[in-house]
Specification:
The structure is a homodimer. Chain A is α/β, with parallel strands linked by helices. Chain A has helices spanning 37-45, 52-70, 75-90, 97-111, 119-150, 174-183, 200-211, 224-229, 255-265, 296-299, and strands spanning 10-13, 16-20, 31-34, 156-159, 189-193, 215-219, 235-238, 242-243, 249-252, 268-272, 300-301, 304-305, 312-313, 318-321, 328-331, 334-336. The radius of gyration of chain A is 20 Å and the shape is globular.
């Protein structure tokens, strides 16, 4: 394989954001194409587009779409429209830091041109979003190289959720490491946790790795204990949605038990994430807002009912892995013990 | 609630074994009724009837059905037919010790009447199977009492898989403790892991506990780490399929990570099991055969396809929890630190 053959999760062309509809995978490869920021917000909420870096990039382009739409309003109404829309975008999902980070970066461009809500400004915002996308691609590649450097000779890697091309603008974070190993001819053996409730592991990770010719084996999340304790993997790599100053890491629900089992068996547990995922404004995981998802996602799968109706459900989207359980952070700026 | 209102998973009447078809729950409450031991074997394999004690009881009645059927053969063919059929029953599922234990107990009745394959023998076998069922009911009640005695004042309990009436001939093992707490008016707050791949938690445990008025909340298996680390439960109770002399315990896949997370947070981790689950013939978990289930169970849910076809799957039905991670064993003979 080569890096160019890896799929792209989103692109922006002709003033439209085009995103793979990830809710339809793996059955169908369909795209959502829109010039309406509200559709982008809805796509982020419904996980049409997802992954901390992915929603950051989509959010950035959404800001450009907001400013273009504001030009259809009278000039005195534009500022309020933009403020309101940016709040909507920022709050589409609360846990990943990248989304609000990207919106703030675009807001800074708007604020550096006070009183000038023009098509030229919209063009500058599009250019800024392009930069975020290009930087994300670069960060993914660097994460991939740093991570591949520290993998053992015969890499057998467990991962969780989807942290690949479908979660970023580039080759991914944890999966970026795996793709880089594959390009280097190291033939990594990959184990993917299915990642209930939304099955990003089985639906997305298995799909994109198999498509790229990577040797991937699927398991239910509960089977990771048996996998790790029986010595079948020599490293675990996951992504991150937000990392606090002390290294506490919010990531997809089910990450924390993997870190605890790795500690029990002295297996390396890595977090691969771009620098944009580090939130220096908070000291620890206790300050992170954790999104609670709906009961339906647990009680139903693809329309099939798994439990009695009205079942009460506990469904946080993320859990917090304490920094001390993380062997190292693989970032675009190198490998660090703590942020 | 009272104990009499709890559903029965199987009964034997008019030379037929009648079992709830647990593959149809929670959508439909249907029964399989048969006088053919092959249907019982198939029911055990397909998890129509399941749970270590449950398949032991079903296997015992299957032996009675074998002997009744053998009476339709010429007398010289009976012994070979019976030997062959008992092997089939014993090997329907390999991990739980109760199935082969029950078959051996019935075989001893046959062998104590050499050369006498008669309707009277069949009647004795039915009586022996009735004893196993009645003993199981008694053991469940005693496990429930011992377990309820050690629960804290406001029990908040995480459990895994299904260990209730649907898994036994009585009120269950881990769920027997929960039912007993409910009957005592302790209003336990119960959290049930959904238990992928076959969803015994969401389909069966939630169904039977809700039916009995117990306060139950469902979670995906990966969310147990967040649940335990956030202090929402004060004990974990699971069942067992086989327990070695050193306390190593085979139980439904996903049990072991719960025990490791409990250790990390100093939460009590109990195994509730009848004495028949203790296998004194083996020293440790390393000697236990672990059943590997089919890829389809992971890749498909209720006919919906979750991953690309031809996906490779790692799907052990059970994992091994080391004896040293188990706070205590709640058995019908009392609570023990180690077997």
């Amino acid at each position: 394989m080569n890096f160019e053959s890896i799929i792209e999760s989103l692109r922006y062309a002709d003033n439209k954001l085009v995103m793979i509809d990830q809710t339809k995978l793996p059955a169908k490869l369909e795209y959502v194409s829109t010039d309406d920021y509200r559709v982008v917000v809805d796509s982020i909420k419904r996980l049409v587009i997802r992954g901390a870096p992915g929603i950051g990039i989509a959010g950035a382009y959404a800001v450009a779409l907001v400013v273009i739409e504001s030009l259809t309003l009278t000039s005195e109404k534009r500022q309020e429209f933009i403020s309101h829309a940016l709040r909507e975008i920022s709050s589409a999902r609360p846990t990943a830091v990248n989304l609000s980070w990207a919106v703030e970066r675009l807001r800074a461009v708007i604020e550096s041109h006070p009183g000038e809500i023009t098509l030229e400004l919209a063009e500058k915002l599009k250019t800024e979003a392009d930069s975020i996308l290009r930087e994300d691609k670069d960060m993914c590649r660097r994460i991939g190289e740093f991570g591949a450097d520290l993998a053992p000779a015969n890499p057998a890697i467990l991962t969780h959720c989807n942290t690949g091309a479908l979660a970023t603008g580039g080759i991914g974070t944890a999966l970026g490491v795996i793709y880089t190993l594959q390009v280097r001819g190291k033939s990594p053996k990959v184990y993917a946790g299915e990642t209930r409730p939304l099955l990003q592991g089985s639906r997305l990770t298995v799909w994109e790795l198999a498509r790229a010719g990577v040797d991937v084996t699927l398991l239910v999340d509960g089977a990771a204990g048996a996998l790790i304790s029986s010595g079948m993997v020599n490293m675990v790599i996951v992504g991150a949605d937000r990392i606090a100053r002390n290294g506490d890491t919010a990531n997809k629900i089910g990450t924390y038990p993997l870190a605890v089992v790795c500690k029990e068996h002295d297996i390396s547990f890595y977090v691969a994430a771009p620098s944009t995922t580090f939130d220096d404004s908070i000291e620890s995981g206790e300050e992170m807002p954790i999104e609670e998802r709906s009961a339906e996602e647990v009680v139903q799968v693809m329309g099939a009912s798994l439990a009695p109706p009205e079942t009460k459900v506990f469904s946080p989207a993320f859990d917090i892995t304490p920094g001390e359980l993380i062997t190292a952070f693989i970032t675009d700026q190198g490998v660090h013990k703590r942020p």
